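User: I'm curious what two different proteins look like when written out as structure tokens. Can you demonstrate?

Assistant: Sure. I'll show them one after the other, since each token string lines up with its own sequence. Here's the first protein:
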Amino acid sequence: MPQFRVSVDFGKDGVEQLEVNANNVGVALKQAYEITAKKKTNPVSVNVVRVIEESWETRSPVMKA
């Protein structure tokens, strides 16, 4: 399941960040909305970024005789 990093900026009240496992970006945005509903304040900005893990696999060519 993809992982998203949600950042909600409340201006002078600070920034709340969390990482969410979600099927798509819409579900991650819903988590951001729940954070704002708990604080009962409007955010300055909401950012959702997908966390991409890259792994390197080294392969050498195989010669057939």
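Here's a second, unrelated protein for contrast:
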Amino acid sequence: MSRTVPDAIMKQRNAWSMQARFLRIGYAVLVGVAVVSAMLAAAKLGLEEIHIRLLAFLAAVCTGLLSSFDLGSKSNRMRNAWRMLNTAVMRFEVDPTCSEADLLKAYEKAEEMIGGVKEQLEIPKG
């Protein structure tokens, strides 16, 4: 016997799955661009000075975005929250002793797990 999960919970579970995927893809792209740009800038490979500078700048921007917004950790927290909510949804659907209140508690814990976005831009003093 399967019970119906509230629509709001299902919508949020689906949104978290998509957000976790986008965060992971964004993280991978930024890491890839940062690494390749830094390697090309260091190797020079007959590039003009302006191109070397642009590659170094691009590597620095990507690295800065990764560290200031902590995208890797955020994507992991988002996926772990999705896992927690997904497990609670499956339990609710098949276990008659699992109440809607239990499902909402799991949702609340998952929300806390995600947390906010770290926006700590470190500006050198002096």
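A detail about the second structure: Residues 97 and 105 are 14 Å apart (CA to CA).
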